[in-house]
Amino acid sequence: MGSLAALLKSNDVPLPSQRTLVEEILRDKRAELATSGDAISQLESTLSALHAKHAELASEISQYDSILSPVRQLPPEIVGEIFLYFTPVMHHDSELGKRERVNLPWKLGHICRLWRAVSLSMGQLWSVIDLGAPCPVEEDDRTPQLFDPDGEK
Asked: What domain of life is recorded for the organism (predicted)?
């Protein structure tokens, strides 16, 4: 083996006996590499199965946790008050656009049966009607367009 170490550090041609020894070493190392590759593949397969099982268990836990959710204990009256709390004041300068205000009861009604029943029963949530008319534009915003579409006078 000592002579092989010297061959690794030089460009000398190996003797026939050294060549035979190197070929045996290569055969053994390649077999060992294949064996370790197979072991890695088996471990990766096992790991993949464990990841899938882990995800399935996490999903099941989440589903069962939802049964014990505190929001299920809220009476409809409290749910309705919460809806009203998050309903924005209906002013033109509201941060929430008109389309979102109009869609709020519809969105709440898609969560669950209780929320749908509560949102349908609350007239305050349905107090905004969208007739599809455009919002009024300030006169100053339109003025340049009257003269020239490019903004030039």
From this structure: Eukaryota
Domain range summary for the chain, segments of one domain joined by +? 2-67, 73-126
At a CB cut-off of 8 Å and minimum separation 6, what does 129 contact? 102
pTM: 0.48
The rounded distance, in Å, linking the Cα atoms of 24 and 32 is: 12
Q: Are 117 and 76 in contact (CB under 8 A)?
A: yes
For 4-21, b/e burial (b = at least 16 CB within 10 A) is eeeeeeeeeeeeeeeeee
Round to whole Å and give the CA distance between 59 and 74.
Answer: 24
Q: Write the pLDDT tens digit of every residue in 89-124.
A: 544 444 555 555 557 788 888 899 999 999 999 988
Note whether 86 and 72 are within 8 A (CB). no
Alpha-carbon span 151 to 153, nearest angstrom: 7
Report the alpha-carbon distance of residue 71 to residue 63 in Å, rounded: 14
Phi/psi-derived region of residue 132, left when phi > 0, alpha when psi is between -120 and 50, beta in every other case: left
Residue 49, token pair as written in the block: 């199965």
Give the separation between CA 80 and CA 37, rounded to whole angstroms.
61
